[in-house]
Amino acid sequence: MRFGAMAAAAAVFIALAIVPARAEDPVHIRIGWVVVPADIMPLMLHQPALAPHSGKSYIPELTHFSGTPTEMTALAAGELDIAALAYSTFALGVENAGMDDLRIIADVFQDGVSGYHTNGMVVRNDSPIRSVDDLKGKILATNQTGSAVDVAVRAMLAKHNLKDKRDLTMIEVRFPDMKAMLSEKKVDLITAVNPFGFDPELTSFSHVLFTQEEAIGRAQMIVVVARKGFIEKHRAALVDYLEDYIAAIRWLGDPTHHDAVVQLVCDVTKQKPELYADWVFTAKDYFRDPQGLPNLEALQANVDLAKNLGFLRASLEVAKYADLSLAQEADKRLANSANH
Fold this sequence. Notes:
Layout: H1 2-18, E1 27-33, H2 41-46, E2 58-64, H3 68-76, E3 82-86, H4 87-95, E4 102-111, E5 120-124, E6 139-142, H5 148-159, E7 169-172, H6 178-183, E8 190-192, H7 200-205, E9 206-211, H8 212-216, E10 219-227, H9 228-233, H10 235-253, H11 258-269, H12 296-308, H13 325-338
Parallel strand pairs: 1-2, 6-7
Antiparallel strand pairs: 3-10, 4-10, 5-8, 5-9
Helix pairs in contact: 3-4, 10-13
């Protein structure tokens, strides 16, 4: 009787051993974004062919934010897994929010790269403002205090010995609302980031007073970040996500796809093709690294600037907070696929 029980148990063990292991469930990745097409995540996930791993190894869950500072807050609260953060917001997350486990894993886009776009800080044509010095006593709009464009504006003001609350007033305005605020003379300067800076209605009554490049030079404007624990736990899924992400960057930037790209952007943003056709994903747009790698040298200079402007308590060595091995592995996979 005892032998029979042992034999039955052995049979069950053998049966379980030969059953194929069930594949792991896809990892849910909560992803933050601010503006399309500057952030490409909504584009790549709108067109399934651009994200072949989506729904298989990872399930994306996108959340829209009005600026990167609120994205950073959500990341700190455990409400996001991946965030697209400005250089200034990333540093704030590490220094001021105590997220020393924050890791830069990829590039989103860069401003002021030679031959590519730089953001314009815009005033009305009928305004008496002719120089930065003329901003004294005026009202300036940026999207959020501490955002990349906000820091750029403050950097230019500092060069002219102008300061918020002492010499002028800076307020927060959502990017989509800035044109109306400028047109209605509720503010005197706005930050015209893509795609809003290309709006024909805006350009018909305004002009650029100074550019972001003039204010701060080359900027590693936005980086993809995740927390170390999430990377360690879900590395394989993140590499799959970055493989899709980098491949999408290349597809979107391929001139032979331009008409299809414009249509895709219009489908996602619900805007007319005329707003995008002349510039989107061309040299008139921001620079995006085709290997998904951020420029850490530029990022260090940008973070140092944020420190000098008083946004950070201490200096920050950004290379310590970068883990580019995931993007490099994803890029290597793409290269191997192309060679076969």
